[in-house]
Design a protein that fits this description.
2 helices; seven-stranded mixed sheet; mainly beta; Immunoglobulin-like; four-stranded antiparallel sheet; single chain; 18 strands; 2 domains; elongated
Length: about 260
């Protein structure tokens, strides 16, 4: 009788894992010292490639944008488990959800152009040190692999405090050169940690380019708007354009002229 109950509970546990997988899992990365997606198959699949990408250095409390890319294999039932040794993981869109402080898929995904990219955010701790990101992903139930561990150094850059002290205002500078062709530089400064966007609009208000879309530390920055044939902006025609900087609730817009 005891043996029959044991077999029943083992079978029930295995079936529950398999049934729960399409809605996400946690505890399956190298952080947990597990054997990976062992509920599907005991051995990893070398043809499934799982990679983590993003900034390798963050300031204390800074938020960085990261991705886990899955390629290889069938790509018909893609899932992922993402974990961090410290810091806080957050979702970037609806393709991930938080489960036990880790990130996982809310439903199975399918490859697009031979891969699937999961986007997420990592908030660094308030203290310096090292963070390790872990990921395990599957291409379908019988095909899975680990990602190589990804280390992020949390550092206080020498001289940053002095720079932050000097930057006391929100400012968008006039692009140079102006008029321009084929490229121009736009500089700006922000006084505090903010989600920053810098976008280009035509005279009708249509967005034609996004130059910046990420969280920035206080400081002065410069970005190049390039119309070389190798860029995505090479088809933009001559005329008057506007570039707009947003940092939190602060907004500033300036005019520039493209001549071809």
């Amino acid at each position: 009788m005891k043996n029959n109950l044991l077999v029943f509970f083992v079978f029930f546990f295995a079936v529950s894992l398999l049934h729960a997988y399409p809605n996400g899992v946690s505890g399956y990365t190298k952080k947990s010292n597990t054997s990976g997606c062992y509920c599907h198959t005991s051995a990893s699949t070398s043809t499934v490639i799982v990679s983590i990408q993003g900034p390798t250095t963050l300031q204390p409390s800074q938020v960085g944008d990261y991705t886990v890319t899955v390629s290889g294999g069938a790509g018909t039932a893609v899932g992922v488990d993402i974990a961090a040794s410290s810091g806080t993981l957050k979702t970037s869109d609806g393709n991930l959800k938080i489960l036990n402080s880790e990130l996982t898929h809310p439903n199975k995904k399918v490859f697009s152009a031979g891969q699937y990219v999961f986007k997420f955010k990592l908030t660094a701790p308030a203290t310096t040190g090292k963070i390790t990101l872990y990921a395990t992903a599957c291409s379908k139930k019988s095909q899975w692999n680990f990602a190589s561990n990804f280390d992020v150094s949390v550092e206080s850059v020498s001289g940053l405090n002095e720079e932050i002290t000097n930057v006391k205002s929100f400012q968008l500078n006039q692009n140079y050169p102006n008029p321009f062709n084929p490229s121009t530089k736009i500089s700006y400064q922000i006084p505090h940690l903010s989600k920053v966007t810098l976008k280009i609009f035509d005279i009708l208000g249509n967005e034609v380019a996004t130059l910046v879309d990420e969280e920035k530390m206080p400081g002065t920055y410069e970005v190049t708007f390039n119309l070389q044939p190798t860029t995505n902006h090479s088809q933009i025609t001559s005329g008057v354009y506007f570039y707009q900087l947003k940092a939190g609730s602060l907004v500033q817009t300036r005019k520039m002229i493209l001549t071809k």
